[in-house]
Amino acid sequence: MIVRTTEDITGTARDIAAPNGNWRSKRIVLADDGVGFSFHETTIAAGTTNEFHYAHHIEAVWLIEGEGTLTDLETGNAYELGPGSMYLLNGHERHRVEPRTPMRMLCVFNPPVTGREVHDENGVYPLLTA
Length: 130
What we know:
- By secondary structure, the protein is mainly beta.
- It has 1 helix and 10 strands; from the N terminus they run αββββββββββ.
């Protein structure tokens, strides 16, 4: 059994912030935990524009606080997000998140991330193993 709190993670190697300060991700469960997925609490600052593309991972996101717009950069479709919204990037969609208010979300990645990934110039995480 694993029991952790976000307080336990704050300020550790599991607490990752974007170099530009737009987002912060607390990696609660990672690949080395050996459960087949990773689980994160991510916050994104209001008024920012954030483009991501998880070419090697499926990501499910459940927004628990905040409001903003999600744009599928493959189709141009835009979706309004608020508390209780979920989106699933099951097709590795390139996407943009633009919060109007600070957003807090819970995210699951499969395969799990290791915590060592860094977004490349296209917003992609490499596929690393534990």
